[in-house]
Structure formats: C-alpha cells, structure tokens
Amino acid sequence: MKARVKWIEGVAMLGESGSGHGIVMDGAPESGGRNLGARPMEMLLIGMGGCTQFDVLTILRKARQAVTDCVVELEAERSATDPKVFTNIHAHFIVTGRDLDPRRVEKAIGLSAEKYCSASIMLGATATITHDFEIRDA
C-alpha cells in the first residue's frame, strides 16, 4: 500500500492514495490553515470508523443478517500535551435492518475490535477504545 501527501500552501495538503483517490487536508485558521479540508487526526478517526464498519458489515452479511443501513458515530479525546495522541475513542454503531439478532451484532463488533480491524487495533495501542450499538428496525 502506498500513499503520497503533497503540500499545497499554508498548512493545506493533498493526500493521494495508491488507488488514485485524493483528499484535501487543512488546519484550522488559528494554526495557519484556511479550513479547506479535514484535519489529519480527523482522517485517522474516520479511517478507523470505515475499517471497523467494513468488518462489521462483512461479518453480518456472512451471518445472513438483513442489514439495510449502518452508521458508526465516533467520539475521541486526545492528550493535552504533545504528542496529542488519542487517549479514548468511543464507537457507537447504529445498525438498521429486518429482524437483526442483537447477539450477532455484538459479536460482529467484538470480532472487528479484537481481531480484524487493523486501524482500531493500532489506535488501541495508545487509546482506550469502547463500543456500543443500537438496532433499528427497517
């Protein structure tokens, strides 16, 4: 896997993935940015959300659960001093579908957190990561 980050101006950067996709990152005005894109640490949090959601959906599909929607709401706290690593991350899953089995949803989230989600496992080296979920009927 490869990626490239090119400086644009100020603190704005263009991140390019090895698969050919781009994303603008920038800082807040107080840090010299123009607020043109997500902050790099926000990208890490979004990446974790995407990684764990991918796992959960894959596991639930294999378990023949009729999922029609899935949202992961993430909330993180960072250290007050440098390096300002994530110290706590909470992932709240909102899984919508027909006749979803709560035990299967809980198991899928646990498997992602403990075995499959590379991003969660890496971030878990510095942060306490917690999860919960709610099920909504489609």
UniProtKB/TrEMBL annotation:
Signal peptide: none annotated. SUPFAM superfamilies: OsmC-like (SSF82784). It holds the Pfam family OsmC. This is Putative redox protein, regulator of disulfide bond formation. It comes from Thiocystis violascens (strain ATCC 17096 / DSM 198 / 6111) (Chromatium violascens).
